[in-house]
Design a protein that fits this description.
Blueprint lengths: L2 H17 L1 H6 L1 H5 L19 H5 L26 H5 L7 E6 L4 H10 L3 H15 L7 E4 L4 H7 L3 H13 L8 E3 L11 H7 L4 E3 L7 E9 L3 H12 L4 E9 L2
Parallel strand pairs: 1-6, 2-5, 5-6
Antiparallel strand pairs: 3-4
């Protein structure tokens, strides 16, 4: 590896350590016994879970549409929605994704979501915190919920596992009770774009006392946006004025 690459990786590690001090202050075991990189199994950086080389390869999302987080291909102004969002404005005011859904995030997310790899989930939450730290704080973080049948099957809710550390690090209230998935639906990964939207019709119900004006939905991946849009519509119907979304990865 070249000296320049080593320096770049070291700078990224130092940046993460400065900005995300929570894990470094509260994970004494990781400081005393550095673990292995979750991607390549080399020695990981302190409390981050990636080696310097893999950290340097994280596919951070660059310029993107503010309404759907689709990566930019042109030179549009930062606050200008893409043509698709201008033609059909989504119910989300802002969407922020930490990464593009590509290596190594595209292997870490399935491990977390489907194979109970909570260490991978912890790392992904760190990546989200890195990108969400500068954003406006909402009145509540609301993880996109699983239906109770899917939750029993999986044993944990991946969106909630991402939202918990985000809420703690960023100091935002975590309010999972504000949104329920009231109808079991087919797996979105098995459906096309139009089918995804139909599949989620009336799938969510928002309710609760003292609904905040501004809510941020937290989820793992945004593909077509159907799940997030259905959840956002339910929150709007309940009286929430502004709904944003923070996701770990955006599928290009």
């Amino acid at each position: 590896m070249s000296t320049a690459v080593n320096q770049t990786a070291a700078e990224k590690v130092d940046g993460l350590r400065r900005r995300i001090g929570f894990w470094l202050r509260n994970d004494a075991a990781a400081l005393l016994w550095p673990g292995r990189c979750l991607v390549c199994q080399e020695e990981a950086c302190e409390a981050i879970g990636l080696c310097p080389q893999c950290l340097a390869g994280v596919p951070w999302l660059g310029p993107a549409c503010p309404s759907c987080a689709m990566p930019r291909t042109g030179t549009q102004a930062a606050d200008t929605p893409c043509s698709a969002c201008r033609a059909d404005p989504p119910p989300l005011q802002r969407v922020h994704a930490a990464c593009i859904y590509s290596a190594p995030v595209d292997c870490l997310l399935p491990r977390f979501k489907f194979h109970r790899d909570l260490a991978a989930g912890r790392l992904l939450a760190q990546l989200m915190a890195e990108r969400c730290a500068p954003l406006e704080r909402p009145g509540a973080l609301v993880p996109v919920p699983l239906h109770r049948a899917r939750l029993r099957q999986r044993g944990y809710d991946q969106a909630l596992e991402l939202a918990r550390p985000l809420a703690k690090v960023l100091g935002s209230p975590l309010r999972p009770e504000l949104l329920r998935r009231v109808r079991a639906t087919a797996a979105q990964s098995e459906l096309g774009k139009a089918e995804r939207a139909r599949n989620l019709r009336d799938a969510f119900l928002a309710a609760g006392a003292d609904l905040p004006r501004h809510v941020v939905l937290v989820d793992d991946v945004m593909t077509t946006g159907a799940t997030l849009h259905a959840a956002a519509r339910a929150l709007h119907l309940a009286g929430v004025e502004r709904v944003d979304a923070w996701v770990c990865a955006r599928a290009p």
